[in-house]
Amino acid sequence: MRKWLRRLGILLLILVVASCTALYSYGRFAEAARGPASMSLPIAADATPLDRAIAPLLREHPGRSGMALLQDNLDAFTVRAATARAAGRSLDLQYYIWNQDFTGNLLSYEALRAADRGVRVRLLLDDMTAHGKDSQLAALDAHANIEVRLFNPSRSRAGVLGRASEMLLRPVSMNRRMHNKAWIADGRVAVVGGRNVGDEYFDAAAQTNFLDLDAALIGPAVAQTAAIFDDFWNSASVIPLAALTTAEEGALERLRENGDAGYASAQAGDYVARLRRSPGVRALVGGNTLHWLDDVGVYSDPASKGQGEGQGQWLVHRLGRAMGEAKRQLRVISPYFVPGDEGARWLVARRAQGVDVSVLTNSLAANDVMAVHGGYAPYRVPLLEGGVTLFELMPHGDQDSSLFGSSGASLHTKAFAVDDNAGFIGSFNLDPRSVNLNTEMGVLFRDRGAAAALLRSYQAKIAPDMSYRVYLQDGALRWEDASAQPPKVWKREPEASAWRRWVARAVGWLPIESQL
């Protein structure tokens, strides 16, 4: 027994020494590899098409920001593509996920076309999903007007084994990810919200598409978004892709030659048609749906959260204060909802104070991350007993929502509405990972018209044909499907396979809630 304990002790010592060495080595590498600082380019009165489209609107509403809610997935794609086409100065793009799929490649091509016109493109991606996509990213990075940087990247780029070794040796630092989402064109238009870049966010996925929400912004809120981008771009957690890998000879030319292949495909017909019908950027973001706000701000965790620092400035504190202002009602949309004991008690306490608290999240069958549902499930009974109303999105949703026949729908919107006059739209889930590990961002606003629009979105998602109402019957969970006549009541996770139910339950037994 002593021999095995001695061997175990030696192994642990070796692991600790190796971990400390890896942390020190990576720190030295990251410090040396950091790219030169660069800042957002100043705006001009009429230097670019976006300047000329937006400046007159802002003169009509001095000091105010305009905000349009982008609920339709095709609209969300079109705004990004159209602003890239209209950009004449800069594109600053920050995402957790940028897939190399149909729509991801279309938007990469728009960024490349902009760079060919002389537009400066800065692309900042989290490395968790960028890893393995080095060839295309390196090809873009080879362009004189494009720079790609990665948040908290692994040094090993050549396979799973090297990356797994890094995760083993520096698990704490590798676990911190950048979940921000921002698309900024010419410092004039910003798109902030829940969508990453990929087919499932723009109605192009064949299986499941996300129900999501972005805010398109013009005015002072765009400068706030740009300042957040600069904080991350120049932070200690970010390393230029060129310090990790380089493009093969001719890669950029091949990307340029083949980049428009997606637009030439039959699949692109609806996207091309929508772009052609778009009546210009001003009408796109400045129509009747634009809300002019006096009280609006774009906020983020500091980039230093990537190193576990700056706790006093973490976004959760600001969002907690905003939610705490509710006097009559609080409506929460969180696809990955793991409130924890403290969060559950906080919501129940609001209900005890007379606030009508209602939460929409994914059902197990609709959730694309079964583990998260396992973390959420134990809180349903105490929340319901405390008077909180729960809805869970059905796995199918609107059968006409996808352009390519997808029958699946999954909630991805992260938002809340306070009473009938304030709200938030962003990347922040009510879960431990958003609170403590990921960096997050979003738009906080106080405006009755914008809040009403957000509440309409909430009401549409909890409609009987979209979501189950979860309730207790003699202490047991029940799910009501009111779209059926008579209403159907489920006594276990509706429409979920035995395998999904088992996995979710098993996860609930594990001590991993802090990672969800």
Describe the structure.
This protein is α+β, with helices and mostly antiparallel strands and 516 residues long. It folds into 2 domains: 43-286, Endonuclease, Chain A (2-Layer Sandwich), CATH 3.30.870; 301-515, Endonuclease Chain A (Endonuclease, Chain A), CATH 3.30.870.10. 40% of the residues lie in helices and 21% in strands. The strands form 3 sheets. The chain has a 10-stranded mixed beta sheet, with helices on both faces. Strands 9-4-3-2-5-6-8-1-10 form a 9-stranded mixed beta sheet, sandwiched between helices. Helix 4 links the parallel strand 2 (90-95) and strand 3 (120-126). Helix 3 runs parallel beside helix 4 and helix 16 crosses helix 20. It is globular, with a radius of gyration of 23 Å. Mean pLDDT is 90; it is low at 397-407.
Write the layout of secondary structure elements.
Layout: H1 2-33, H2 49-60, E1 65-70, H3 73-86, E2 90-95, H4 102-116, E3 120-126, H5 127-130, H6 134-141, E4 146-151, H7 160-169, H8 171-174, E5 182-185, E6 189-193, E7 208-211, E8 214-218, H9 220-233, E9 238-240, H10 251-258, H11 261-264, H12 269-277, H13 281-286, E10 291-293, E11 295-300, H14 315-324, E12 329-333, H15 340-352, E13 356-362, H16 370-376, H17 380-385, E14 389-393, E15 408-411, E16 415-418, E17 422-426, H18 432-437, E18 441-446, H19 448-461, E19 467-473, E20 476-481, E21 488-490, H20 498-509
Parallel strand pairs: 2-3, 3-4, 7-15, 12-13, 13-14
Antiparallel strand pairs: 1-8, 1-10, 2-5, 4-9, 5-6, 6-8, 11-18, 12-16, 14-19, 16-17, 17-18, 19-20, 20-21
Helix pairs in contact: 3-4, 6-10, 16-20
